[in-house]
Write a structure and sequence with these properties.
Radius of gyration: 23 Å
CATH class of the largest domain: Alpha Beta
CATH architecture of the largest domain: 2-Layer Sandwich
Largest sheet: 5 strands, mixed
Oligomer: single chain
Length: about 325
């Protein structure tokens, strides 16, 4: 994207595309393969310039974050190390009675898909010294309790279980059921990246990367250093933003994506991955005993098939199998 293209899109975007244009229109005009690719590039240019639509800033409120009514939340958490007494630094077995303080939440960040604003919270220095994460745990519980779909990287194995552990510790009930999209599992099941770490995949794909940091940040935050806690919050928030970039890049390959048709009030077929009405029907998809119309989404690039076979009743009767 160059400056002239950005300025033209920005002029329409800041007025909510009231002139009838939109990402699909500009993607076709400027030769982008998909509207989602253009949307991601445009958002990165806006971020670099510090430009956002101020009336889009929504804190702790539910919003529809795509073309359907589904509320899709990207999120990430940072937890403290475990403080324990040890006898050495190599090949150690740490017994539970050596633990001085178990881990707890340090910070969390989240954003509704496509919204400019990143919501976040971090322990105060006083809370960090007391190892009291109850306030920020309750806030992320309230947020997760409102969403339909979550996006995380290694969330199924780490973030979700860690949060559930702290919810249980603080006497909170389970949050309302939501569908989880774990981009780490998507990467492992569909590709063969040399590393499946978020930062490496983004670097490989030319996407924005993580903020550089090290163990020193966690140590200082653990002991209540105000600047380090603020840096931790910013680190976590950046992770959420680059997670969104990765999700949008991988989305066409997510074959078990929660079907966004189910959150649509319209009686029309839409792309199950992004909710777009711009699906191009072409050719057929064949199973062992069925034939279905197939499609490609013009916006996100996902492909799929109709739910019902287009074989007539008489033809279906003639289909046999071994």
């Amino acid at each position: 994207m160059n400056s002239a293209i950005f300025e033209e899109i920005y002029s329409s975007w800041k007025n909510n595309f009231d002139d009838g244009t939109g990402y699909s229109f500009f993607a076709k005009k400027f030769g982008y393969e998909t509207s989602e690719g253009l949307r991601s590039a445009f958002r990165r240019w806006r971020k670099q310039r510090g430009l956002r639509r101020e009336d889009n800033i929504i804190e702790n409120k539910t919003i529809a974050s795509n073309k359907t009514n589904a509320k899709i939340l990207c999120f990430d958490v940072e937890t403290s190390p475990i403080c324990a007494l040890v006898w050495g630094i190599w090949d150690q077995n740490i017994y539970t009675d050596a633990i001085i303080n178990d881990w707890h939440l340090l910070s969390w960040s989240a954003k509704w898909l496509f919204d400019d604003h990143v919501m976040s919270d971090v322990l105060t220095p006083e809370e960090a010294l007391k190892h009291d994460d109850s306030r920020i745990v309750k806030k992320i519980w309230n947020l997760l309790n409102t969403c339909d779909i979550t996006i995380s990287h290694n969330g199924d194995k780490f973030d979700c279980k860690r949060l559930n552990t702290r919810f249980l510790f603080h006497g909170l009930p389970p949050v309302s059921k939501y569908k989880s999209i774990d981009t780490l599992l998507v990467a492992k099941s569909n590709f063969n990246f040399t590393s499946n770490k978020l930062d490496y995949i983004n670097q490989y794909l030319g996407l924005p990367q993580k903020t550089e940091t090290g163990m020193e940040l966690w140590k200082k935050a653990y002991f209540g250093d105000a600047k380090s806690l603020k840096d931790m919050e910013e680190y976590c928030s950046n992770d959420v933003e680059i997670l969104e970039d990765l999700y949008l890049k991988l989305r066409p390959y997510i074959h078990n994506h929660p079907n966004l048709n189910l959150w649509s009030e319209e009686n029309i077929s839409i792309c199950p991955n992004c909710g777009s009405e711009n699906i191009n029907w072409h050719g057929h998809y064949y199973t062992y005993t069925g034939r279905y119309k197939s499609f490609t989404c013009s916006d996100c690039g996902a492909n799929g098939r109709a739910r019902y076979t287009d074989l007539d009743k008489e033809k279906r009767k003639t289909v046999v199998r071994t």
